[in-house]
C-alpha cells in the first residue's frame, strides 16, 4: 500500500523543517501520539539517521505502540522512518518543499507484507485500511500545521 498526503503550511521551509525534526516533542504536535520514549540518539549530531524511539498513539480507537527509527535523512528536504510489526514493514517519509513563502509538507506511507497471512488480509481489507490510513495521516498533517502556525516555541516551553 502506498499513500501520499500533503498540506500547505503558512511558514517558511526552515521553520517547518525545524518543527518536524523535533521528534522528541512530537506528542505535543500530533494529537494521536499519547506517549514518546527515546531509545537511541543518532551517532552523528548533524543527522537524524539512527534516531530510534517508541511512540504510543491512538489508532482506530485503541492505543498501539510502535518502535520507529530514521533510516534516511536529507537536511531541509526529507527524512524516512521505518517500523516493523505484525508481519509488515512500514516506511514513512516526511518531506518539505518551498511554495513561495509557504511550505508544502508531504507525508508518504508505504507498507509491505512479509508474511502470507498479512498479504491475504491486506488483499481483502486493503481499500478499507487505505481509507482509514489516509484519514489518519491527514489528521496528523493538520495537527502539525496547527502547531507550526501557532507559537510552537511557546507551546514547547509549557
TrEMBL record:
InterPro entries named among the record's database cross-references: Polyketide_cyclase/dehydratase, START-like_dom_sf
Any Pfam family: Polyketide_cyc2
Gene3D superfamilies: 3.30.530.20
Superkingdom in the source lineage: Bacteria
Protein name: SRPBCC family protein
Organism, scientific name: Leucothrix arctica
Amino acid at each position: 500500500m502506498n499513500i501520499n498526503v500533503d498540506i500547505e503550511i503558512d511558514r517558511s521551509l526552515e521553520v517547518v523543517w525545524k518543527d518536524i525534526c523535533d521528534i522528541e516533542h512530537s506528542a505535543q504536535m500530533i494529537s494521536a501520539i499519547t506517549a514518546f520514549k527515546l531509545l537511541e540518539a543518532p551517532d552523528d549530531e548533524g543527522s537524524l539517521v539512527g534516531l530510534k524511539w517508541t511512540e504510543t498513539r491512538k489508532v482506530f480507537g485503541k492505543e498501539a505502540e510502535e518502535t520507529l527509527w530514521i533510516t534516511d535523512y536529507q537536511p531541509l528536504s526529507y527524512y524516512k522512518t521505518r517500523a516493523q510489526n505484525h508481519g509488515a514493514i512500514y516506511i514513512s517519509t516526511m518531506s518539505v518543499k518551498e511554495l513561495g513563502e509557504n511550505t508544502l509538507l508531504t507525508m508518504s506511507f508505504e507498507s509491505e507484507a512479509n508474511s502470507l497471512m498479512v498479504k491475504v488480509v491486506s488483499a481483502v481489507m486493503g481499500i478499507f485500511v487505505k481509507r482509514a490510513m489516509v484519514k489518519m495521516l491527514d489528521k496528523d498533517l493538520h495537527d502539525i500545521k496547527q502547531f507550526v502556525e501557532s507559537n510552537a516555541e511557546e507551546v514547547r516551553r509549557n
